[in-house]
Every structure is written in C-alpha cells, then in structure tokens.
Amino acid sequence: MSRLFGSVRARATLGASLVVALALVAAGAAVLLSLRGNLTDQAGSRADSAARKVASQLLTVRSFGDLDLPDDEDQPVQVVDGDGRLVAANDDLQRISGTGVDQVKPGRGGAGAKEDGGDVEDRGDREDRGDREDGEIDDETKYTDGSATIDGESAQYRFAAVEVSSPKGDFTVYAGGSLASEKSAVSTALTAMLIGFPLLLAVVAGVTWLVTRRALRPVAAITAEMSAITASEDLARRVPEPDTHDEIARLARTTNETLTALQTSVERQRRFVADASHELRSPIASLRTQLEVGAAHPELLDVDGAVEDTVRLQELAADLLLLARLDAGEKPGAGRVDLAAFVREELSQRTRDRVEVHAELKSAEVAGSRSQLARVLGNLLNNAQRHARSRVTVTTRSDGAWAVLEVADDGSGVPEGERERIFERFVRLDDARTRDEGGAGLGLAIARDVAARHGGTLVVREAPSGGALFELRLPGPQSSAE
C-alpha cells in the first residue's frame, strides 16, 4: 500500500477524488437544503392561502356551520376562538399535532352548532349585526410543522396560523399544506445523488489516473534513460525532451544541460589529468636520465640541469596543487591589500631579467588573499617578460569601485581570435611553444581562476606599444563586503 501511494499518479488520483468528493458532498447538501426550503415555503404558501380564505369567511358568515372548509386530504383546517376552544374543523379530521390544539371535533357553538341553531353571533359579546363588517385579518402569518390524519391518511404538514379580530370575538385559523411533495422530491434527489456521486467519483478517478499517466510518461522515459546513463557511464547520451512547453519539458532540458555540463567537466578533468601527466613526464624523465648518467659517470653529471628540472617540477606541482584548491572552491581571505605597495614589494624581490620593468603605481586597495594575488602578479610578469622585446610596464590605479592592475609588454601581442583560448589550462600558442623554456600553460589559467574567486575579471587586449596588455580588475573592500 505504501508503495502504491508512493506513486505521484496514485497521489494525484487520490487527491483529485477527495477534492471532487468534498465538492460533491458540499454541493449536494446545498442542493438538498435549497430544495427542501423551497418546497417547504411552497407548502407554507398554500397553507397561508387556505387559512386566509377561511379567515375571510369568518367576517361574513353567520354560523360556523356555513364555513366552506377544504374537504381534501391535503389541507387540514382548525378554527380556534380566543379561549383556545375549537369552533370548526374538517369533517374528516381524525388527529392533528403542531397547532397547539389537539381537538378535532368542535363542541357547542362549533361546526355542529348549525343543527342547534348556533351562529357566529352567539360567540363573543353579541354586539349588533352591523358590526360584523368591522373585523380585521392580521397581516402576519405564523408557521409551525406538525402532522395530521384525515380520513385514515396520516401525513406531515406545514401549518399557517392567521389571527382574525372581529366584534364577535378573536379567532385563529390553522390551515396545513402537505409536505409530501417536499419529502418525495428530497428523497428522490438524495437517491439520485447516492447513486450518481460514486459513479462520478469513479469517472474522475479514472480520468485523473489516465491523464496523469499520460502526463508522467515522459518522466518514465527520462528516468529510464538516466538509469541507462548511470549504468553505462556514457555522459554523451541525453534524455528525451517532449514536444511540450510544460514543467516536464523544462525538467528534461535542465537535465540535458546538467549532463552537458557534467560531460564538459569530466572531459576537462580527463584532459587536465592527461596534460598534467604529460607535463610531469618530461621533467621527471629528464631528471632521471641525468641522475642515471651521474650515477654511472659522476664526471658527466649536469648538476645545473638537474636543479633546473627539479625547480620546474616543483613549480608545476605547486601550480597543480593551487588549481586543485581553486577547483575545490577555496575562498580568498578577507585581508586588505594595497596594490601599489604590494606590486612594489613583489618587484623588489624579483631577480633582474633581460627585460626592463617599469612601474606606474597609484594606491588602490582590494580585499583578498595576498599569496594568491602574488601568484597572479608573478604569472603575468613571467608571461610578459617571456614575450616582451625590451620593456614591461606595470600599472595600478582606481576606477570607481574597482582596483585595476595592468601588465603590458611591447612584444608581438596576442591575436584577437586567441585572446580567450590562452586562459585555458595547458594551452600554449605556437609562438609560445618555440620560446617557452619551461612553462606548462597553467599560469594564465591560474591567474583568471584567482581573479574569478576574488569577484574580479582578467582580460587581454592590445597594449599601446602593440604588445599584450593584461588587465586585472578586482572589487574594492566595500564592494567585496557587500
């Protein structure tokens, strides 16, 4: 059971059925109450009409025996005087309740008073005959529910009570309207609902089940394909995208985008491992060869070459370790660095090179890791010095909320089509390969990654001298804090 209702289709069907069931119960109850109220009001209207008809007769007839009372089974009638005594009723009335007067046969002066010579004037104060025209029928009608038996037939009634005031006395006329039609209609409607509602719920549940099944069919296809991708480890495969514009189509597109990003990441990692292995193989092989030669022929040991290969290997290992930390999401520190003082200090620690370095430094403060920024500056200077003809210029300045560090050389520059490619890992342009004496193609990739981790950017464009100009933009301390 828990597995069944663990299905989205089953939960959707159950939810829709419950909502429809509650709506049907509420609507059915409202319909029944409205139907019953309307039919009860109709019975009350019939009772009120009959009571007022009899009340009008009380103002004109001389004797209660002259009253024209209904003789059918649908309208029991009682006429009661001010003392609560029954003075007139249907001839076939056998029992009544709900009017407050249980009598069904009038006493002296009632309906039988006609045989005894009684008349209306004998009840009351026996005032002048002309005063009969001064009577009044109350506009207000009071209603009660009860039952009556007429000629052996019992039924439920809606009773209307109309009061009549005349010089001959005060009377109350009770007339009933049958509730049989109300009960029959309510019973018929209730029976129809009890039969129709379950059928309607079954139809709703079936339609919901089928519609949900059809709607979730692409999800099943996506699940199956994802399982196949997981089993085969083939990230080149993609899940099917339905030809719709709904959430499932967006899910399929997002899944494929995720697979594409994952494939790119895995392929990048594989290339990284392959390139790193290749770059490590060269200095390790060279160092081993030199050591083996030195072991066999000590006089031939190239100590300077061994040290150079060891340094190259050490630098490459450090670059790979930094890239691994950056890929793992290492965040820069929150320390503050004045770029002008920082660049001046770093330049003072560098050994002299064949290329002259000029500095044009203005104070510009940033927040970040001093060691990572030092690696960026070192990589940019190394790259500029390898490609410059005679001059490298380092500039620091502020540009609004940004601190800017620029490193420019007077070399041949970077072709416009290669200006993004040089930031990829292990990428070296053909010209760089011929002149590079040990670079692995990681310096610029590390510099851009560090810039991105600091919330900044690193781009290359043409320098005024025609060479390459690398511009590092970093947010100031306030922008970083925000």
- Percent helix range: 40-55%
Q: Biggest sheet: strands, sense, closure? A: 6 strands, antiparallel
Derived structural class: alpha+beta
Number of helices: 9
Ranges with pLDDT <50 over ≥5 residues?
108-132, 431-438
What global shape is seen? rod-shaped
Cα end-to-end separation: 52 Å
Order of helices and strands: HEEEEEEHHHEHEEHEEHHEEH
Please tell me the overall pLDDT: 82
Number of domains: 3
Radius of gyration: 53 Å
Strand content: 15-25%
User: What is the number of beta strands?
Assistant: 13
Q: Widest sheet: strand order?
A: 2-1-6-5-4-3
Compose a concise summary of this entry.
The protein is of the alpha+beta class and 482 residues long.
Fold and architecture overview:
- Keywords: Kinase, Membrane, Phosphoprotein, Transferase, Transmembrane, Transmembrane helix, Two-component regulatory system.
- The two termini are 52 Å apart.
- The relative contact order is 0.07.
- The protein is rod-shaped.
- By secondary structure, the protein is α+β, with helices and mostly antiparallel strands.
- The protein has helices at 8-58, 180-232, 247-296, 303-327, 339-348, 370-387, 430-435, 443-453, 477-481; strands spanning 77-81, 86-89, 93-97, 136-150, 153-166, 169-178, 336-338, 356-361, 365-367, 391-399, 402-409, 457-462, 468-475.
